[in-house]
Specification:
It is found in: Mitochondrion. Keywords: Branched-chain amino acid catabolism, Hydrolase, Mitochondrion. It contains 15 helices and ten strands. By secondary structure, it is of the alpha/beta class. It has a six-stranded mixed beta sheet with strand order 1-2-3-5-7-10, sandwiched between helices. The chain has a four-stranded mixed beta sheet with strand order 4-6-8-9.
Length: 351
């Protein structure tokens, strides 16, 4: 019996070409100005635009479900050399996940809390492992889910309008979206301080803390984006060089001292304790105006969230991003169960 002759794989090429054409047609629909997220290809760049300016570009499950497959497609596309993500409206890059929708779903026993966090963290991991250079233009408010869409990428460009915070301990949660990975890796104990107190960093301080990689004036971002798109088959180094050229020309607050500089010695000492009880004890013993202010802030936070966050960062310091996100998914579900239980027991309280 004669052996079967397999047809050569190159015959699949026309189908692949068709897939690419269909993908571009699909993407053209996503440039509708009313869509929650706009996905488009310009030059050698894939561009993601968060498009919910009235709610500070808060992230929804639908947006996540559109962004993730598009990143994966661009990652495999030989004609896509970088990915740019930005927000519309001028006030925010992304102020976080759409917590209201998640809370409302939780009240009626919906699956949104499970699906949202799972798919959000899968997206965060995809950004952290993306093979194509990923440039986040974090102009304006960047908190919670917005941090997850930016901080794990290759490049994060802050402006004088950037406002960064991880405020979760104030609402009974924890700094998720990979906070357990990137926060303990910041210089000294800055990450622990930011996580536990929800302290807000503004403008160039976001760069000085190690969260942003570059600083460019907000009004220069359209020109920067245009130049990034115009790069011909750029390498990561070419992209870095272009970002650096804009960065060195940015003079806003250039001479300004890092907002936490004068407190770094105390932050490194006071927030190095192994437990929240020890941190509180150290702050009380220190008694300085700075320490007293931190005590006042911590006393307003959820005690459970504080303990959970400290352990999250201590364990995350030696874990991979993927393992941290798996840990955080389990924590998110425990928090949601806890919140649903409290809603059942205390229906009059505001979640």
């Amino acid at each position: 019996m004669a052996a079967r002759v397999l047809r050569p794989l190159p015959r699949l090429k026309p189908f692949n070409r068709l897939q690419v054409i269909l993908q571009h047609l699909k993407m053209s629909k996503q440039t509708d100005s009313t869509a929650e997220v706009l996905l488009e290809k310009r030059g050698g760049a894939g561009i993601i635009t968060l498009n919910r300016p009235k709610v500070l570009n808060a992230l929804t499950l639908s947006m996540i479900q559109q962004i993730y497959p598009q990143i994966k497609t661009w990652e495999q596309d030989p004609e896509t050399f970088l990915i740019i993500i930005k927000g519309t409206g001028g006030k925010a890059f992304c102020a976080g996940g759409d917590i209201r929708a998640i809370a409302d779903a939780g009240k009626v026993g919906g699956r949104l809390a499970q699906d949202f966090f799972r798919e959000e963290y899968i997206l965060n991991n995809a950004i952290g492992t993306c093979k194509k250079p990923y440039v986040a233009l974090i102009d304006g408010i960047t908190m919670g889910g917005g941090v997850g869409l930016s901080v794990h990428g290759h490049f994060r460009v802050a402006t004088e309008k950037t406002l960064f915070a991880m405020p979760e301990t104030a609402i009974g949660l924890f700094p998720d979206v990979g906070g357990g990975y990137f926060l303990p890796r910041l210089s000294g104990k800055i990450g622990y301080y930011l996580a536990l107190t929800g302290f807000r960093l503004k403008g160039r301080d976001v760069l000085k803390a190690g969260i942003a990689t570059h600083f460019v004036e907000s009004e220069k971002l359209p020109a920067l984006e245009k130049d990034l798109i115009a790069l011909k088959s750029p390498s990561t180094e070419n992209i870095a060089d272009l970002l650096n050229s804009y960065h060195v020309k940015s003079k806003v607050d250039q001479e300004k001292e890092f907002v936490l500089d004068e407190h770094m010695e105390k932050i490194n000492s006071l927030f190095s304790a192994n437990s929240m009880e020890e941190i509180v004890k150290k702050l009380k013993q220190d008694g300085s105006p700075f320490a007293i202010k931190q005590l006042e802030t911590i006393n307003k936070m959820s005690p459970t969230s504080l303990k959970m966050t400290l352990r999250q960062l201590r364990e995350g310091a030696s874990m991979s991003l993927q393992d941290v996100l798996m840990m955080e998914y389990r924590l998110s579900q425990a928090c949601m169960v806890s919140k649903q239980l409290s809603l059942c027991l205390f229906p009059a309280t505001d979640g």
